[in-house]
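Internal ticket #5521
Category: modeling
Description: The requester needs a full-assembly model to guide mutagenesis choices. All entity lines are attached below as received. Residue total reported by intake: 527.
Assigned to: D.W.
Attached entities:
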Amino acid sequence: MTDYYLRTNTEARMVEAFAAIGVDVQRIDGECHELDGQRIDIGWIGPVTWTDPATGQTQTDSRFHANLRVAGELTEAQAAELPILNPAPSIPMRVWA
Amino acid sequence: MKGNSYVPFMLRRGDGSTLSLDFTAMGDTLDSRFTFTRSSTTSTYINSSGLVATAGTNVPRFDYNPTTLTARGLLIEGSATNLIYWSESFDTTGAPINWNWSAVNVTRGTVTTTAPSGSSATVVKIQETTATGLHAPLIVYSSLTSSVYTVSLFAKAVERQYLSLFDNGGSAANAMFNLSGNGTVVSESTAGIATITPYPNGWYRITMRTPTLTNMNVQFRLSTDGTTTSYAGTLNSGVYIWGAQLEAGSGASSYISTGASQVTRAADTCIAASTGFSSWFTGGTTGTFYADWFGGVRGITSTVRSVLSTSDVTARHLHLQQTAAAGNLKVADFGAANSVTTSNSITSGARTKGAFSFSGSTVNLTLNGGTVATSSSIAFSTAPTYLVLGGTSTNGSTITDATVLLNGSIRAIKYWPSVLPTATLQSLTT
């Protein structure tokens, strides 16, 4: 399995990104799809919040975030269509079990 | 994962059924005609010893009652996310990002003891200081999606046997629990929002459902008497805690362990397709299904819950489901354009039996031996090609509606390639 962390400026743009690889998302956290014969799971997150270790204040990144788990891995063409965070966050707000 | 053994189950030998599965008697191996997937490397369930056990990727979970140790069957859950960080360590420092736990007049001790998993582990003890006031660890969440949430926690009495779950944020929802004997919900801010379940080794899992909210301040408040939560503490008196969970939705799902990140468990998918379906589904557009499951385990909610369904495409779809809100049993066709619903309803969390026969557009349906409901307008005219347990699928390989998974355990299913009489449907489900 391969995990990808995705981020776009808006939820609509995230929907479009998945549509570009042929996935019609439900926009529900934990939805499943079949992509090229392999299962994918999508964590539909939205903005992320965290505590700034320096100030102790809650911070919010209002951009839209999603987690993608692929049973195998994406093709290069598919990966190019998705807004994959590279490098992946060192401590993501959310991960797959 | 493809199962590799077949366990036959016959209510009556020679009853004409061509599929008869008892999921409470399969051990850990699913019938080979079904394919099971779940994209999580670690998911938990209750094993035959009543302990919190883990299952790997694509491994079906056969769940047990942690108190009686009776088999509950094949667990089918939708995806869920544990929003609480440090669910076992309750760390107060050390998270470079994300939240830590805070404390009010308690310290975070640790002991080596038997955890709900049955393993010897380092377990946190919340223990009082001598200060007067509340004694509670807490964690604060803001900007939650507007939703109902459920908080759950494993707790074990030590010097204190009363513990309160309290939302001091958006709702003030709260419940007080007695961690002794069979476990008791001493009080709750709204009737029916709290549960307590005894586990082995003196542990209890306590749960509380909130109203719809967007901010939470989750507190686990110690109490000396089941009423008072503000008092002068006795140094180091407290309880053991483990496995805190905060998740969207009504009722607690299987436990999800977290650390510095929130963790999402992927959805269960169990489908019989290809020869795993055609080898027994021999009646075309005529037949009978029977199911035995635990209904409304996470409450009768505003969401439909699937028990089983055939191909979710035009003319091939029969969907046996618990209805939203009322908790009746329904069979619907593609897009739920037409349906038939029982007049009686499911008891939340109870063992439930339902059966329906179908012959083209005519469906007869009964729940727990109740009055048979009939419709002659179900749009079912073409033989399906796969069966999904506890969900629906438009492609025959993955569940495709994440909102309707059963969130419960299926004990047994049967199929006959013929229409059984309505009296038989009632007797099967009584």
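Resolution: model delivered.
Comment from assignee: The interface with chain B takes residues 1, 26, 28-34, 37, 39, 41, 43, 46-47, 49-51, 53, 58, 60, 67, 69, 71, 91-97 of chain A (CB under 8 Å).
Ticket closed.
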